[in-house]
Amino acid sequence: MISDIRILNYQLLSSLFYDVPNELQLKDYLLITKRLSEICDKDTRNELHFLNNRIESVLDKDLNQIAVEYSKLFLLPNGVVPYASCYLDGKKLLKQESWEQVKDFYMKLGWKIDEDENYLADHISVELAFMAKLVEECDKKVQNQFFNSFLITWLPSLFQDIKNKEISYFYYAVACFGDAFIKKEQNRIWDGGVKNG
């Protein structure tokens, strides 16, 4: 049961960062966040309620608002860059050392990503989707290794940057939920006695 909840959280976050959600996707996210807020513990419940309220608000307004926000946040030069290499390698450039490292990790576990199709291997959506797959298929040691080597090294900074952007409304709530969930995952790993992979 706990693994299923973790998988759903990772999949939800991955899909929220993948692209601008359409009305049908937002309605699905609404159902998912409502269900998660009923079954999750207190560590993420408030953030799920907050995200749920923002989804409802966006559905009640012009859906173009979310497309504008997504573009300003993730596509324009003054936004945030949702790629690990831009956070970890000190150059704010894509395809740096951390990109190579995460690609190597994927390949060691037999996971191939076609980077020509959508995003590079170190995009937040790709890394979160991979973590969902690890929770589903791999032992905790592999999950913890990926989490400690990749996710926790840059996601808190990305979430903070999103929250600091004035344009952020819907994605402010997404970042709040993401931050709370990643902190919960970090505590789960540390409480399990595996602090460094």
Automatic annotation (TrEMBL):
SUPFAM superfamilies: TorD-like
Short name of any one Pfam family annotated for the protein: Nitrate_red_del
Keyword flag Secreted: no
InterPro entries in alphabetical order: DMSO/NO3_reduct_chaperone, TorD-like_sf, TorD/DmsD_chaperones
Coiled-coil regions listed in the entry: none
Gene3D superfamilies: TorD-like (1.10.3480.10)
Alphabetical UniProt keywords: Chaperone
Tree of life domain: Bacteria
Keyword hit for Cytoplasm: no
Protein name: Molecular chaperone TorD
Organism: Natranaerobius trueperi
